[in-house]
């Protein structure tokens, strides 16, 4: 009898976490490494939010809470959805989890059966297909190529839908590309989905507030209200509020789905941290002006990184609409040899040689479903980004 579960063989460890851990190990060994693998803002959590967490501790709000969130946080989430997305959710239509990833995980575990299919636009966040596979269902990748701005065409979505399709996962702005779907593009996708009423939609809107150059964020249930009853709108406080370690994600959706998500959570983690929940109340209800300030910093970093990468031999870097990632192509480096003698045969060998020879940690595009590319997170200091891009330029310039 095997000790480990068969389901474990269906998934692989997170590539982004693996790169981050490798960078930490090299730093601990004394190497000068610039880690651009983790999707985590370098800004500190705003003071008013931290104080709300401290106040919760001092007031003794340290006990178990309702499994899927305190009433005060659900009210703050409902107000946010109405204020920013024109979506109305009652308390029994809202769930709060330990990060957005748990909300996604719970929803998929609560709804998927063997034989079900989930359409996942590629490039994708590394966890989407792995969670689907762990649930025993089949991830179906639909590629949005670089020349289409890393966004899928409605015709490609239509072609991928079968009677077995249960979900479409839609992440905009995207991790790993930063690509954002315009309202018109979402309208065209919604038109396809209206023709297939058995397909549910899961929107990962985690980067909603991190958009640039006048891009206007929209979420699909807002664009097409007829999809409201089969859409789970997922969001969280991690990125816009620089609260990654607080671990609070949330979603709004049909009450029967939210109840099923709560059932899964009740037998896994139970409630998210009570302290983090009270901090999240302050995040959503409190001052929002710092978001625009941080967004402008991210925009300047994006512009710096895109400009410098496009000056590197063999690299082509599109200009993303949002998030804090770029997803350049390294196709022009394939077949060359590095100064250290490494053969660049694919994006994985590219990022391995870059780390070993220049001490820059990025993640290969194949981990996100599209090669040969690599992802850079520019959620770090401008100085580190400038030095990292200089090293990438040097690395590429020395390829022969």
UniProtKB/TrEMBL annotation:
<keyword id="KW-0032">Aminotransferase</keyword>
<dbReference type="InterPro" id="IPR015424">
    <property type="entry name" value="PyrdxlP-dep_Trfase"/>
</dbReference>
<dbReference type="InterPro" id="IPR004839">
    <property type="entry name" value="Aminotransferase_I/II_large"/>
</dbReference>
<dbReference type="InterPro" id="IPR015422">
    <property type="entry name" value="PyrdxlP-dep_Trfase_small"/>
</dbReference>
<dbReference type="Pfam" id="PF00155">
    <property type="entry name" value="Aminotran_1_2"/>
</dbReference>
<protein>
    <recommendedName>
        <fullName>Aminotransferase</fullName>
        <ecNumber>2.6.1.-</ecNumber>
    </recommendedName>
</protein>
<dbReference type="InterPro" id="IPR050596">
    <property type="entry name" value="AspAT/PAT-like"/>
</dbReference>
<dbReference type="InterPro" id="IPR004838">
    <property type="entry name" value="NHTrfase_class1_PyrdxlP-BS"/>
</dbReference>
<keyword id="KW-0663">Pyridoxal phosphate</keyword>
<keyword id="KW-0808">Transferase</keyword>
<dbReference type="GO" id="GO:0004069">
    <property type="term" value="F:L-aspartate:2-oxoglutarate aminotransferase activity"/>
</dbReference>
<dbReference type="InterPro" id="IPR015421">
    <property type="entry name" value="PyrdxlP-dep_Trfase_major"/>
</dbReference>
<comment type="similarity">
    <text>Belongs to the class-I pyridoxal-phosphate-dependent aminotransferase family.</text>
</comment>
<feature type="domain" description="Aminotransferase class I/classII large">
    <location>
        <begin position="32"/>
        <end position="392"/>
    </location>
</feature>
């Amino acid at each position: 009898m095997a000790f480990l579960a068969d389901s474990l063989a269906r998934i692989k460890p997170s590539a982004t976490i693996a790169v981050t851990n490798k960078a930490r190990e090299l730093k601990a060994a004394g190497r000068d490494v610039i880690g651009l693998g983790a999707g985590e803002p370098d800004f500190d959590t705003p003071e008013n939010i931290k104080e709300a967490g401290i106040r919760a501790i001092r007031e003794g709000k340290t006990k178990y809470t309702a499994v899927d969130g305190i009433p005060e946080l659900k009210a703050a989430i409902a107000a946010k959805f109405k204020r920013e997305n024109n979506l109305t959710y009652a308390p029994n239509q809202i769930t709060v989890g330990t990060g957005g990833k748990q909300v996604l995980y719970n929803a998929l575990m609560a709804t998927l059966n063997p034989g079900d299919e989930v359409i996942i636009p590629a490039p994708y966040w590394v966890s989407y297909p792995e969670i689907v596979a762990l649930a025993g269902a089949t991830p179906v990748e639909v590629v949005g190529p670089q020349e289409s701005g890393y966004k899928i065409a409605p015709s490609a979505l239509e072609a991928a839908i079968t009677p077995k399709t249960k979900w479409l996962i839609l992440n905009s702005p995207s991790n790993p590309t930063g690509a954002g779907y315009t309202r018109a593009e979402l309208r065209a996708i919604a038109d396809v989905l209206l023709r297939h009423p058995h397909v549910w939609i899961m929107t990962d809107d985690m980067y909603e507030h991190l958009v640039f150059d006048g891009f206007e964020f929209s979420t699909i249930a807002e664009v097409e209200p007829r999809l409201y009853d089969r859409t789970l709108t997922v969001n969280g406080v991690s990125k816009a509020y620089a609260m990654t370690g607080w671990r609070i994600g949330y979603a709004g959706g049909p009450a029967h789905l939210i109840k099923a998500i709560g059932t899964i959570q009740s037998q896994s983690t139970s409630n998210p941290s009570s302290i983090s929940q009270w901090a999240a109340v302050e995040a959503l209800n409190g001052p929002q002006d710092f978001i625009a300030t941080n967004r402008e910093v991210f925009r300047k970093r994006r512009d710096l990184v895109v400009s410098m990468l496009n000056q590197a031999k063999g690299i082509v870097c599109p200009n993303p609409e949002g998030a804090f990632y770029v997803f350049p192509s390294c196709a022009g480096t394939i077949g060359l040899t590095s100064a250290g003698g490494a053969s660049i045969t694919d994006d994985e060998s590219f990022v391995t040689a870059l780390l070993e020879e220049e001490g820059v940690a990025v993640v290969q595009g194949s981990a996100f479903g599209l090669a040969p590319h690599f992802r850079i997170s520019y959620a770090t200091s401008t100085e580190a980004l400038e030095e990292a891009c200089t090293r990438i330029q040097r690395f590429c310039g020395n390829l022969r």
